[in-house]
Amino acid sequence: MHRESNANANPSAVLVPEIVPSSPWRVTGVEVLPGFRLQVAFADGLTGVVDMSGLVHSPKAGVFAALADPSRFAQAALHYGAVTWPGDLDLAPDAMHTAIQERGEWTL
Questions:
Q1: pLDDT tens-digit readout, 8-17
Q2: Which residues neighbour 77 within 8 Å (Cβ) at sequence distance 6 or greater?
Q3: What is the pLDDT of residue 78?
Q4: What domains can you pick out in the chain, each with its CATH number?
Q5: pTM passes above 0.70
Q6: What own/partner pairs with CB < 8 Å and gap ≥ 24 does 34-42 have?
């Protein structure tokens, strides 16, 4: 599972203390799974699956239609506690957390 990088890798480059968000819904890990799915972990220890297979292949996918390319989908990364992709695509971590807390999976 990919984790957010730590600014302590080069302590001499840090000019201000690292800001560590404390929101329980902050995503701390993401792993790309087969079938346009993600395994995610949150700051509060909650884990679950995000299933985007229906969304990326939907005529209503909008900007997320670009993620129907498996190589593009595989570029999922974390940025400030949210799952992101190149091209300014991201998922709302708070909505993701709520759905996974209630059902164990967020299906888009």
A1: 556 555 677 7
A2: 2, 30, 83, 84, 85
A3: 95
A4: 25-107 (3.30.2020.10)
A5: yes
A6: 36/67, 36/68, 36/70, 36/73, 38/76, 38/83, 39/1, 40/83, 40/96, 40/100, 41/1, 42/93, 42/97, 42/100
